[in-house]
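Re: weekly structure request thread

Next one in the queue (414 aa):
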Amino acid sequence: MDHPRNHLLAATRSKIEWLAGKLSRVTSTGELIPEVDGLRFIAISTVLFHHLMAMFLSNSGRNSEVRTAAEWFAAADQSWLVIPAYCGHFGVNLFFVISGFILALPFAKRAFSEKSAPDLKGYYLRRVTRIEPPYLLSLIVIFLIHWEQRGEGLQFIPNLIASLFYSHGLIYGRESLISGVTWSLEIEIQFYLLVPLLVRMFRLRNAAARRSLLVALIVGFGLLSQWVIYPSGSARLALSLLNFAHYFLTGFLLADLYLTGRLRSADKRLRWDAVTLTAAAAIIAVLSRFGHFYFLLPLMVGLLYAGFFLGRLSNAFVRARWIVIIGGMCYTIYLYHILIISNLMTKTIPLSSITRPFNLDFALQCLMLLPVVFAACAFLFIFTEKPFMRWSLSPRPVKIPAEDLEVARVSSGD
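Done, posted below.
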């Protein structure tokens, strides 16, 4: 006779499987790269860490608002966590590399096999149907909530319209007044438009020449950003693709290495785990102390991601089931996390105490906030993002690589 505990465990497993299925991403192609969603988890985690710390510092009364690097460094004497949290803004750049990788794959794959490029109509429709509905909905929801809370709205309608058309940064020279995080999506759109032109470099048959060109462009755009765009003080240039092209091109380089087998070794090695840790430490060091090496950051991210593909422990981490699932929800989390945290923190910050040790106080806030953020974003993901994930011009069979069958039950790459 079965023990009641066994029935309870079976029921719990069944509910977890059901939840995992609901929260798992789907695609129209069925092509799966589990590591991609694992890397998305890392990127969105760093962004969350950055914004949580920023809001905690100002709302707890421990510090005034932190926006500039100087303000972050001034707050750093309060805890060793502050500098890593400041570096969390770099999570957006991590996303840019992933975007370059994902969008380059179908074009590079066909170029390497000497086939014609994917249909551009399908490419652009896929981008529109995948990212546009959740984006538009989030802007409208955030706009209406701010209007209701502040009693102000009409004067921000021009900003809303500019944001809806991914042009707020170019028109106003600043982040969107409706949803500050959408500046990065405006840059993504600029990149999407240029991808069919940029991917022509994959027609170069000589792999060494092709990769050398990519490295040269990565370093060149990095120097342009560091030596020209930032010193110019032009906000419009800073909020343009010119300032971030080197990160997307790093994704191109990784796509090249992936398709030619360099990132797909079945023999995962601990030495690549060391590369992962070294690259992560180097990125933090450059962001916090050695700014004259900023132009090399994309190549450091390339090494970081290579470590996650090839390292024994690193790869196991980014392929872990719930890491993959949460990473697959990153778009929804990115769109809504500031709205959710800022509203929740008004309720949780009274439980904070400036007499309590900083790290403990921050940890308690995270324990109260993050589960609610996850639950709210999971709900929003299911109803506002997932319905737009599976789309194609015509039905096609789903092909799943044999080595990814297990992971395919819970997740998929896009």
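The chain has a mean pLDDT of 90. The chain has 19 helices and no strands.
Next request, please.
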